[in-house]
Design a protein that fits this description.
Elements (H helix, E strand, L loop, with lengths): L2 H22 L4 H9 L2 H6 L11 H12 L3 E3 L3 E3 L2 H17 L3 H10 L2 H7 L1 H4 L4 H16 L2
Antiparallel strand pairs: 1-2
């Protein structure tokens, strides 16, 4: 799409999204505009190749709303999550691979021993370590709870 046409598309969409923000949040127009332009949703929307401009203003508002609650889903582009959420998934996949488990098996194990909460809440300490340490740490955490 030509740059001029893309900018025209944004000029039509953005005011509608900002209006929805003012209707659903206690923001005036200026605050809502600032919030939207500072959002991850807008940063993806302004990249023409993402094709987010194909979505309705209401869908873009819902994505903004989800972002305000900690994550957003980008259709065709995956989920943008918190750093803790992304790390939790990374640890889960590393553990699954190291232990040759299925996703369901890891989920049941992590649920039984509350490893989900542990990994998520210990992001600051664990994210600076390597995958081998992470797997060993999760093993130690689970082992300590097996006898409790």
């Amino acid at each position: 799409m030509e740059k001029q046409k893309f900018e025209a598309m944004l000029m039509l969409l953005v005011p509608q999204v900002v209006h929805l923000i003012t209707e659903n949040y206690s923001y005036d127009e200026l605050s809502a505009t600032k919030e939207f332009y500072n959002s991850k949703v807008y940063s993806v929307l302004e990249q023409e190749d993402t094709k987010l401009w194909h979505l309705s203003a209401l869908t873009l508002f819902h994505m903004f709303d989800e972002e305000k609650n900690g994550y957003i889903y980008i259709p065709g582009g995956g989920v943008i999550m918190s750093k803790e959420g992304n790390f939790l998934i990374y640890c889960t996949e590393q553990y699954k691979s190291a232990k040759n488990l299925t996703g369901r098996q890891v989920s049941e194990l992590f649920t039984k021993y509350r490893a989900w909460d542990y990994i998520y809440s210990c992001f600051e300490a664990l994210h600076t370590t390597g995958e081998k340490y992470i797997v060993e740490d999760i093993d130690l955490y689970i082992e300590a709870r097996q006898w409790a």
